[in-house]
Amino acid sequence: MTLAKNCNQHVAGSGKLGALLILASMASVSQAASLTEQQMLEQEANERIAEFSQTLKGQLQAAIKQGGLPNAVSVCKSVAPAITAQNSKQGWTLARTSLRVRNSDNTPDAWELAQLQKFEAIQSSGQQSVDKPIVASEYIVNGDNTEFRYMKAIPTQELCLGCHGSNINPELSALINTTYPDDKAINFALGDIRGAFSLQKVISDPVSPMTAKP
After folding, report:
1. Number of H helices, E strands in the chain
2. What are the residue ranges of helices labelled H in the chain?
3. Angstrom distance (rounded) from CA 118 to CA 135
4. pLDDT on residue 142
5. What single-letter DSSP state applies at residue 88?
6. Confidence at residue 205, expressed as pLDDT on a 0 to 100 scale
7. 3 state SS of 136
8. Got the DSSP string for 168-207?
9. Torsion over CA of 123, 96, 102 and 53, rounded to 10 degrees?
């Protein structure tokens, strides 16, 4: 009698667990279905950014630990482009740009320039919470293609100041100027917008352009 009761309780418990799992699964599906295409693309872009940032930060920290900030310059020059290429996949193109670039190859195009200027205006207004990223996304129709474009501001962190701040070691500054003759990426303070990640992806089915969302 007791055994039968225990078995019934186990079956009932299993049934409740199964029902909870089904409800959780349905909630996840419902949440995914409720996301717009633009929101899903933004999620994908942020995944690319997170993977790039984590990898580059690890490489920089290791380089600095081994040989100081001069090694970090070498990583930015030779390793960062490779990490960028690794994360330009599944139809995405990833890049970094700024109003004050170190590498002239990263000079912003017209759309990027407009977003960077908006980012600076948002930052200056003080209306954006410091823990909320400044982003912009937009569909752009170009002939038969529709591109999704996304940008996310890069705040200046402590790790950046050694090479991008206002008190750079003279020997390091000389190395930077030799490596990047057109360098403008200095005199940043903690929390300044250092630049932005810029991603784009060609969408198969053309859609109507959508307003940028900083």
Report:
1. 7, 4
2. 2-34, 37-67, 69-74, 80-86, 110-125, 158-164, 170-179
3. 10
4. 84
5. S
6. 61
7. strand
8. --HHHHHHHHHH-TT-------TTSEEEEEEEEEEESS--
9. 90
- The pLDDT score that the predictor gives to residue 15 is 54
Q: What is the pLDDT of residue 16?
A: 52
Tell the burial category of 134 from Cβ atoms under 10 Å away from its Cβ (0-12, 13-18, 19+).
buried
């186990």: which residue's tokens? 10
Mean pLDDT, the chain cut into blocks of 10 residues (214 residues total):
48 49 45 74 96 95 94 94 93 97 96 98 88 93 91 94 95 96 96 97 64 47
> What stretches of 68-109 show up as alpha helix (H) in DSSP?
69-74, 80-86
CA distances from 213 to 39, 45, 130, 210 (A): 11, 14, 17, 9
CA distance 79 to 73: 10
Which residues fall within 8 angstroms of residue 16, CB to CB, at 6 or more apart? none
Structure token digits, residue 50 = 């997170």
pLDDT value at position 32?
Answer: 46
CA distance 116 to 195: 7
DSSP designation for 87? T
Q: Count the neighbouring beta carbons within 10 Å of the beta carbon of residue 47.
A: 13
Q: Report the pLDDT value the prediction gives residue 126, as an integer from 0 to 100.
A: 86
